[in-house]
Write a structure and sequence with these properties.
mainly alpha, single chain, 96 residues, 0% strand
Length: 96
């Protein structure tokens, strides 16, 4: 997952790539990382989005695609839940 988190893959795809069933993948992942694969993937993508907002001029739509999501509205919603600001407000405050 570390190498492929920016691809638009779901957890079933990650399980298949690791050669495990979805249930075994969930169980093994939780043992290793003390979180669910879905939560880990969401956090990793949001951290990367935050980095891109701070270091590039990519648009929010471009960042959405770059982090492996397809729906910009969904990205804005989960970014705001995590960082208490929309991506654009976060970018403005990072450079203020």
């Amino acid at each position: 997952m570390e190498e492929n988190f920016t691809f638009n893959l779901n957890l079933t795809d990650f399980a298949r790539l690791s050669g495990r069933s979805l249930a075994t993948f969930h169980r093994d992942f939780a043992k290793t990382f003390q979180t669910s694969p879905g939560q880990w993937l969401k956090q990793k993508r949001l951290e990367y989005a935050k980095h891109l907002l701070e270091t590039t001029d990519l648009s929010v739509n471009e960042i959405t695609m770059e982090i492996g999501l397809e729906n910009t509205s969904h990205f804005i919603k989960i970014f705001k839940e995590c960082y208490n600001d929309s991506p654009l407000k976060y970018r403005k405050s990072a450079f203020a």
